[in-house]
Amino acid sequence: MWKIGERPVEAGDNFPQVIPKDFPEWENKMNNWGGKLLDAVEQVAEMTAIGMGIDKKTFTQHMEGGSHLLAPTGSDLVKNDVGAIFAGFHYDIAFLTIHGKSRYPGLYVWTRNNLKLQVKVPEGCLLLQSGKTFEHITGGYIHAGFHEVVYTEQTKAAMEKAQAEDRSTWRVSSTMFTHFRYNVNCSPLAQLSHLYAAEDAKKYEGMTSFDILMTELDATNMVTHEASEATTATEF
How far apart are CA 203 and CA 188, in angstroms? Predict the structure, then answer.
């Protein structure tokens, strides 16, 4: 995972960036692409705020100093087969997740009424998904979107066509997780109270962005209680 943007010193997430030795252009490409993705998220965040009838900077001001992470992943389709799960059914912890178009199919999402759909991203477009932090600050008005990535018959057909044309058979996902700053209070916004039920919003009260992260990691056994108490900020 590659850090995008500046973080507050007190956040404590000062781990070094990792540059693969065989990719000398890695740093420039990651910073350039990550910066463009972050710009796109900020534009969408502003449009979303305007659409909700609140100040357009409501969400973007919370993103300043957030632990934004560009996390490209690669799956060798030759070494896998139909039915392989590259990313199991889950939602993201982030505020908003943004993806570039993958060269191979396999991403599925679920709508609010539990309808499973295959994602097809048009050329020149980006895909955004809401995360748990966004759900919290909107009192559940916006839901964290469930999704998964699997190796399907369509994936295999596309891979075999690529083999015949001597193209790469790796499925690459260019994903970036954008976050609110670690100390942002993510309790449901009062100015959005007309959009959510007061009773439903109670379960989202009194948590910072960092609290949400640690709660989610703890629920999936990815952090010990000792680490949770000793750490002021982390990333996922």
Answer: 10
149-175 burial code (b ≥16 CB/10 A, e <16): bbbbeebbebbeebeeeeeebbbebbb
Contact 70, 2 (CB under 8 A): yes
Question: Tens digits of per-residue pLDDT, 141-189?
Answer: 999 999 999 999 999 999 999 999 999 999 998 999 999 999 999 999 9
Is the four-CA dihedral 64, 70, 71, 75 of positive or negative sign? positive
CA 8 to chain centre: 21
- Give, as one character, the DSSP assignment of residue 208: B
DSSP letter string, 57-83: TTTHHHHTT--EEE--EEEEGGG--TT
SS3 181: coil
End-to-end, the C-alpha distance of the chain in Å comes to: 9
Q: Which residues contact 51 (CB under 8 A, 6 or more apart)?
A: none
From residue 174, give the alpha-carbon distance in Å to each of 69, 98, 137, 147, 211: 11, 8, 26, 15, 27
What distance in Å separates the CA atoms of residue 173 and residue 170, rounded to the nearest whole number?
Answer: 10
> Residue 208: what are its φ and ψ, rounded to 5°?
-90, 170
Decide if 54 contacts 193 (C-beta within 8 A): no
How long, in residues, is the chain? 236
Handedness of CA 110, 111, 112, 115 (dihedral sign): negative
Q: What is the pLDDT of residues 61-100, one digit of tens each?
A: 999 999 999 998 999 999 999 999 999 999 999 999 999 8
